[in-house]
Amino acid sequence: MRKVMLVDDEYMLLRGLKRLIDWSALGLEIVTTEQNPLLAIKYLQTNPIDILISDMNMPEMGGPEFVTKAKQLQPQLELIVISGYSDFDYVHAGLKQNAVNYLRKPIDTDELLETLQGAIARLEARQESDHNASLAVQTQSRTLLTSDDVIRQARMSEVLGLQFTEAKPVRLIGVLNPLPPRDLVNYLKVLAAIKGFYVEGQDFIIIFQGTAEQLNVFINEAPHQIGAERRPFLVGAPVKHLTELAQRYQQLRQEIARQYFFETAAGLRVMLPETQQQSTQVLPSYSEVKGMIDNLSVVDFSTWLTTQLEDMKAANASDSYARQFALVVLLVLSDHLTAFNDKTATIAAINRSQDMSALKTTLLRIANLAKQTGVPQFSRNVAAMRQLVQKRFAEPLTLGIVAAELHLNAVYLGQQFKQEVGRSFSQYLNDYRVNVAVDLLRRSDQDVGQIAELVGYQNSSYFFKLFKLQTGMSPGEYRKAGTMDV
């Protein structure tokens, strides 16, 4: 429904106008009536109106002055002026402010209907034109930031009027899931510093060029319901040249993903330029995590996990860093399980977790399974086999070799091991080797091929396959993801 405002100092006229026609049949809703034009101006400062019907003879403020101020506040609204004066010159000022028509008291029903239908037609035409223009700007903005064609980028930059200067730096700004989005669109359209924007999923990517003062105005004067108090506002570092746009865009996307993952409710975040000093944090190793959580109850583990994730959030860790940390925790927890048939599915759940809560839920489920299993009690034979693996995992161990050293039947020993450990001997050996490889990837600079040999694999391809099965990524990807820049 389009919003209509009626302004007249005569109460009976306002009452009669409301009853004169079926407003809803025209798709119109009278949202407010006002007898005092001063109060009407105050209302228009914060409330959008589509059609304003106003008397031109009011004691508190002259009609021409009122419609002029109304148009200044909301240039797109349609004006209909009413007057009991036969002298057209008095209302001419109102018509010069683009009033759609002049209605004389007493108002004729047919004339009112015709006038309103004309106003609605102009609103629809303007809306379609604005929509098409907005789509064009969105397409140009998206092309500028996502295209790898330098010529196209340069052309779009020129079309949008971007100039890379120190006085008015270009920045990329992200506003996450603004509700309602229309309010943000309307706000962006009236700011000269907004060179372009587009919607990516539920988020707005904005191309801003202006001074620090203009940036503060943009942030502080945004409609309250979509401002930084209600939504995360992400302000990118200045872009000094067109060639930096793609990099800044990727940084903004990564930050958007981080905000969603750590479930940030609202707030302003100004992203730092790369030239600023950065600190680096490295993922804890398998053995370090094992030392931290091996003897924790499920409740204590939950507290520990929450603290770890909150510390990452405070340190501006990426969402991928948090997932890699979770995979290390999973490796430690799974070592306590004698039956873990959905390890691959659990790894997938960690890698696709959309937020911190989902990640915690997955790990707590595994922690509960590990606690229910309790501390496993192994027979002398199985304990000896586990000790052999821990001491000689780098050697070409097989069940046959171990059985021969223990002077036992290999078939019997394999069955006993699987019954007590929940995995075959070869599975246990591979799991242990991958856990050691995780530590080496964190602690050493050796290449992946050397690490594969150190943990007992002469065939690097086989090691790659096993590592990805265990952790959900290749050794190289795991090493790269293990460092967090803050």
From TrEMBL:
<keyword id="KW-0804">Transcription</keyword>
<feature type="domain" description="HTH araC/xylS-type">
    <location>
        <begin position="383"/>
        <end position="481"/>
    </location>
</feature>
<dbReference type="InterPro" id="IPR018060">
    <property type="entry name" value="HTH_AraC"/>
</dbReference>
<protein>
    <submittedName>
        <fullName>Response regulator</fullName>
    </submittedName>
</protein>
<keyword id="KW-0805">Transcription regulation</keyword>
<keyword id="KW-0238">DNA-binding</keyword>
<dbReference type="InterPro" id="IPR018062">
    <property type="entry name" value="HTH_AraC-typ_CS"/>
</dbReference>
<dbReference type="InterPro" id="IPR011006">
    <property type="entry name" value="CheY-like_superfamily"/>
</dbReference>
<dbReference type="InterPro" id="IPR001789">
    <property type="entry name" value="Sig_transdc_resp-reg_receiver"/>
</dbReference>
<dbReference type="InterPro" id="IPR020449">
    <property type="entry name" value="Tscrpt_reg_AraC-type_HTH"/>
</dbReference>
<feature type="modified residue" description="4-aspartylphosphate">
    <location>
        <position position="55"/>
    </location>
</feature>
<feature type="domain" description="Response regulatory">
    <location>
        <begin position="3"/>
        <end position="120"/>
    </location>
</feature>
<dbReference type="Pfam" id="PF12833">
    <property type="entry name" value="HTH_18"/>
</dbReference>
<dbReference type="InterPro" id="IPR009057">
    <property type="entry name" value="Homeodomain-like_sf"/>
</dbReference>
<dbReference type="Pfam" id="PF00072">
    <property type="entry name" value="Response_reg"/>
</dbReference>
<keyword id="KW-0597">Phosphoprotein</keyword>
